[in-house]
Specification:
The protein is α+β, with helices and mostly antiparallel strands and about 325 residues long. Helices cover about 65% and strands about 10% of the residues. The strands form 2 sheets. The protein has a 5-stranded mixed β-sheet with strand order 2-4-5-7-6, with helices on one face. The protein is elongated.
């Protein structure tokens, strides 16, 4: 609990203790200041303890799944505080022959009054704590919505900016292809255009067909093979029956890029990437041969995939690493 809620609880319980103690003094006709202060002190202590307990229950997230709707947790919290209230009364009466209400009243009536008083005060404090928490969460949600709106507007603006350059780039690639009479250059240009077209087309798409994702991965691999030659070997074997299944876009490309980034790929030590399916799971495996001078990596590629699968598909990817291989298992999604 932060200082803000502690401060509110202190002043609220103090004011409530004074108000709650006035009827008792008036009823008893007791104008003794000590008796009044005594009533205020034990009421204040009880209420402050109730406030702290309510805050504890409301802010413990591990309890939240067990209480739906959330306010029902107040039944437990109020019940505990009233039990403590009765225990203190019982203890004080047993040890000091002193009741925190009054001694002249029959025990059964006194306990009924204690339960009603404790329940009323504790329930009021829980209501205030619950209201404050709901209000704060509502404010946080509004700020988060506003932030998302701003990010969405920014993303839209970025997309609009990006749409300015594609025509220029595609025209340039077509020009380059027509200018070249060498087949490897023409093929490289076509694959580069395919990769860029895919990036522009599916950046804002949540899922894509396996067939399209495989075509994109093959185009990306063609470009990388122009760089590494036979130092990079990739074998793709996916059942045709899975082509209409869905997968998150850029997953295969990111995993291929991740393998190339962290491993040596030479003729003497080729990097071998296998992409196969195991049922409705695509398994991407590469041999591990870490670079001597590894590039700094924050691991954003894998985090990106894990986060997207969690948010969009509510599923997890499996990562299995040992000394010789690195394997990632990506579940397919139903169309």
């Amino acid at each position: 609990m932060d200082r803000y809620h502690l401060k509110i609880g202190f002043y609220l319980t103090l004011a409530l203790a004074v108000l709650a103690s006035l009827p008792r003094v008036i009823r008893l006709g007791n104008s003794d200041l000590d008796a009044f202060l005594e009533a205020v002190v034990y009421t204040f202590v009880f209420e402050l303890c109730s406030w702290l307990l309510h805050q504890y229950f409301l802010n413990n997230h591990w309890l939240s799944p067990f209480f739906r709707p959330r306010w029902t947790i107040g039944i437990v919290s109020v019940g505990i505080t009233v039990f403590v209230y009765l225990s203190i009364e019982q203890l004080s009466n047993a040890l000091f022959r002193y009741s925190i209400i009054w001694d002249s009243v029959a025990p059964i009536r006194r306990y009924i009054w204690l339960i009603m008083r404790g329940t009323l005060l504790s329930s009021f404090l829980f209501f205030v704590a619950y209201y404050l928490q709901q209000n704060e969460e509502s404010q946080v949600a509004k700020l988060e919505n506003e932030r998302l709106k701003q990010e969405n507007l920014k993303a839209t603006l970025d997309v609009l900016k990006q749409q300015i350059s594609p025509h220029f780039l595609f025209n340039s690639l077509n020009t380059l292809k027509s200018m070249s009479h060498e087949e490897p250059v023409r093929a490289f240009t076509i694959q580069l255009a395919n990769v860029y077209r895919y990036l522009l087309s599916y950046t804002n798409t949540d899922v894509i067909s396996v067939k399209d994702e495989l075509a994109f991965a093959e185009s990306y691999l063609s470009i990388q093979k122009a760089r590494f030659g036979d130092g990079l070997r990739c074998h793709i074997k996916i059942a045709a029956t899975l082509y209409d299944q869905h997968i998150l876009p850029f997953v295969l490309q990111l995993l291929i890029e991740n393998a190339i980034k962290h491993n040596t790929a030479t003729l003497a030590r080729p990097l071998i990437i296998n992409i196969v399916n195991d049922g409705n799971v695509i398994v991407i495996t590469n041999n591990r041969q870490p670079k001597h001078l590894a590039e700094p990596s924050p691991g954003l590629g894998l985090k990106n995939i894990q986060l997207r699968y969690d948010m969009i598909a509510h599923q997890k990817i499996d990562i299995i690493a040992n000394e010789s291989t690195w394997t990632v298992k990506v579940p397919l999604l139903n169309p």
